[in-house]
Amino acid sequence: MKTRELGTSGIQITPIITGTWQAGKTQWVGIEDTDTIAALRAAVDAGITSVDTAEVYGKGHSERVVGEALASVRDRLVYMTKVFANHLKYDQVIAACEGSLQNLKTDYIDLYQIHWPSGSWNSEVVPIEETMRALNHLKQQGKIRAIGVSNFSRAQLEEAMQFGRIDSLQPPYSLFWRYVEQDLMPYCVEQKISILAYSPLAQGLLTGRFQRGHQFAPEDVRSKSKLFQGENFERALDALDKLKPIAERHHTTLGNLALAWLIAQPQTNAIVGVRHVEQAVQNAQAAEVTLSDDELAEISAIGLSVFEPMQDGNPVMWNF
Predict the structure, then answer these.
(1) Which string of b and e fits 214-227 if b means at least 16 CB within 10 Å?
(2) Looking at per-residue confidence, does 23 or 135 come out higher?
(3) Model confidence, pTM
């Protein structure tokens, strides 16, 4: 799989990145560590050499699973993890990084990201200057190679950039969820900041496997997703019907069509979760789908028919 530079860091990442939120098990159902480990290894074998996790996913469980699964091929991989909003004071960042290093069984993290801005999830407000000072110190020590942020607004991203180089932004972004295009993407293009899109398949909706009337278990995070609610869900299913002929033309799946569209957008890469080996192999194939400019525009218009009626100014995908 062809690689791309992460921001201006010199680190080479794959446009498809293995996501491991579900590997933490919290907020997901039916996840088994043995399946996750097999899927992570299969993703590497298929050419996906970038892996994203976070300390908060299962209170470190996701990181530990990644470390167990991939320690033997660590030197071939790019590890991305995140410090949560409640650990943004200087000493907390340093301690959180040490914890992640131990969980991942590594002595360096390629990309260390602020998971949510200070103050999110009722966390204490910490000046971004203090958090960045800690991250810059870790970078100078060689414990992290690059700094990223997740779920930041443009104003928050611009402020963070005043205190050090930010090489990536991780927002929710898919064909059906497009807030990032409005003001963040132009800034990322201008500043050469990589966009690492999470929920690029709209948490499975873009695969086409959900039918009208589908209900998630209350403990499944998707039960709170705006995309799976009422008219939003109906519009999404109608849009998928329009996307099917394009996917068939390329002899690919609906999911891979959506991923191919996404990684063709400026600066954009896709973090795709895996539960099973088959998903890992299929995800890698999305990088081989080449869409014409006309097809990209057609797919984009179909996606906007879902997104535009949903806009309420809140880029968070869930009604938590």
Answers:
(1) eeeeeebbbeebbb
(2) 135
(3) 0.95
